Amino acid sequence: MANASAGRSVLSRIMQVLGTFDVDSAFLTVSQLSQRSGLPLATTHRVVAELEQFGLLERERDKTYRIGVRLWEIACRTPGALGLREIAMPYLQDVHFSVRQHAQLGILQGHEVLFLERLSTRNAVVNVTLIGGRLPLHASSSGLVLLAHAPGSFQAEVLASGLVKYTEDTVQSPAHLRRLLAQIREQGHAVGSGFIHPAARGIAVPVYGLKESVVAAISVVVPNDSAPALPTVRLLKDAARQISAALQAAYLPPGGPQSAGGGKYRALVHSSRNSMEFLEQHRKDHPL
Amino acid sequence: MANASAGRSVLSRIMQVLGTFDVDSAFLTVSQLSQRSGLPLATTHRVVAELEQFGLLERERDKTYRIGVRLWEIACRTPGALGLREIAMPYLQDVHFSVRQHAQLGILQGHEVLFLERLSTRNAVVNVTLIGGRLPLHASSSGLVLLAHAPGSFQAEVLASGLVKYTEDTVQSPAHLRRLLAQIREQGHAVGSGFIHPAARGIAVPVYGLKESVVAAISVVVPNDSAPALPTVRLLKDAARQISAALQAAYLPPGGPQSAGGGKYRALVHSSRNSMEFLEQHRKDHPL
């Protein structure tokens, strides 16, 4: 099937098909993919066959398709997602082990917060955060931290776009939200008690990258009870400080006194000190 | 630039560009992408522009490109990668906390083991495992477990394709490897002492899915010293049993007495019990 407009439209069709998969619908038939993507059935068949050929889709025994492991493998080369998560992980695990509820890492993506990691325990409080999932900025504590440190023009856009209401406690008025953002900047943390679910409280702090810019938020989701937030805030601030230092060390030129070991691997890999030194010195001689 | 062969070759060029990024080269210029992918410079420019438009590549200030967060976001819809990792994670964290070295989850992908997760600590022993990275089956303990449970024809292919030598202790002879695989099947675990690095020992056990098939391996990488392996093997076997049970519960039809909560979300999300019930009951009424 020749197509004179080639390039752009092929990728746009591919993205339409891939974008149809969601946590609601991880397994889809070609008909469902066609219906939900709005692409004609014949086109969908062709795109699906191509994607399957490259391992980007996998066919199940029941003839549904799911997104392929090969796509995930390529996605492990994202400094902005997996790389950041690798750097933050040991500190996030410490927070998780202390709090024994949910501990998460989120970044600003579009007008939402996108979660790069969520560590949970079986008996933790209700929490709607999904890995690779998004939440509105005004409703989640991580989102509030990211919004509080965003430029004024961006804040104005978010405020103008409407504030989804989850519970009686979700911030609804732009004036209230502006006051809350000022308070978050001043105190250095956000607390959202029952903003998304009455039983849950989010507590978040910013993670700074180079040049004092906020590049992420780490947060916990804990029961919305009478427990004081401050001990948890201190725990999160300690972890955020360590993540910021690790992030800066990972992006300084290799070999300097403040730089992390691991050479060019540091943007994607954060393993033990010995492993990073080994990677830096030996990977070239002995490709893995 | 119209191209009459359209579809397949467009995706093949896209894959050539995306496949050029690696942990060695997370940031690349268009010229480097062209050189390494073997695509003409003009074609590379066009493919890069398209990928950037959809967020699959991100342009840095120094004009290099990196793989985009949007690609990672789509990859979070992979039941075979992120989904499996979500199910295994709480148990893998328990192993990691007990061993305080590296704890990892790997699957068979092609003729190699692909690692879906690696939890590490700062002072852990040297370890070459990367998240999203691959290792040869005969050299890594996880790979040995997966190979031991693979069909005979697959084993024959792997044995015939040559056994890369990392250290003096890497298994080199097909006969030796066959004896080792038989032993692994009998004992239910693999120990690789110094197979990849003299200082490191890998210990791995299989994770069973439905119908007694081996779907993954969990492993630790610990110092290659005189410490007995059996206590760690027991720890891993306990975790693997729990992961297998969680995996089976996640793939039984929703609502049954043995099924995990969370309805159709279970293939991708494993959060706390309350969160899974909430997702199952409320996500439809109140889209997140």
TrEMBL record, chains A, B:
Transmembrane segments: none annotated. PROSITE patterns: HTH_ICLR (PS51077), ICLR_ED (PS51078). Residues 70-249 form the IclR-ED domain. Keywords: DNA-binding, Transcription, Transcription regulation. InterPro entries: GAF-like_dom_sf, HTH_MetabolicPath_Reg, Tscrpt_reg_IclR_C, Tscrpt_reg_IclR_N, WH-like_DNA-bd_sf, WH_DNA-bd_sf. Signal peptide: none annotated. Residues 8-69 form the HTH iclR-type domain. This is IclR family transcriptional regulator.
